[in-house]
Fold this sequence. Notes:
The two termini are 18 Å apart. The chain has one helix spanning 123-131, and strands spanning 4-7, 33-38, 46-51, 56-62, 65-70, 75-80, 85-89, 94-98, 105-110, 119-120. The strands form two sheets. The protein has a five-stranded antiparallel beta sheet with strand order 1-7-4-9-2, with no helix packed on it. The chain has a five-stranded antiparallel beta sheet with strand order 6-5-8-3-10. The protein has one helix and ten strands; from the N terminus they run ββββββββββα. It is mainly β and 132 residues long. A hairpin with a 4-residue loop joins strand 5 and strand 6. The protein has one domain (4-130): Jelly Rolls. It is 7% helix and 40% strand. Bound molecules: thymidine-5'-diphosphate.
Amino acid sequence: xxxxxxxxxxxxxxxxxxxxxxxxxxxxxxxxxxxxxxxxxxxxxxxxxxxxxxxxxxxxxxxxxxxxxxxxxxxxxxxxxxxxxxxxxxxxxxxxxxxxxxxxxxxxxxxxxxxxxxxxxxxxxxxxxxxx
Length: 132
Ligand code: TYD
């Protein structure tokens, strides 16, 4: 499985850092939705789903968390701990997030609005979906 970590250009000076996110530029899709997770408890594991069509891009704007990624053949765990780097989550990737730091703010950009019917929330259904 190819892990698509995208480095975001930092505009830093003596005042601090600034990163800009632009659709079809450093974000490789049109951004239709933005959401963020914060205050996640340390022992919580969330996600447990894949999407049929949705592409997302996750950035740990503060703190860190781990991603468990599974394409149905291979499973990989990575840490996101750099606000100047984001993870592209393509459709058909089962993902779980865990080990959120207390200060973690995980920002997610998505190429479509929220649509529950795009979710695959059963692992068995996910395996059938990727093999079909
Ligand atoms: P949920 O799907 O449980 O998050 P995750 O699986 O990533 O841990 O989402 C939590 C709640 O938020 C659920 O009631 C659906 C709602 N929600 C929205 O209304 N809009 C959104 O864009 C997202 C991602 C979730």
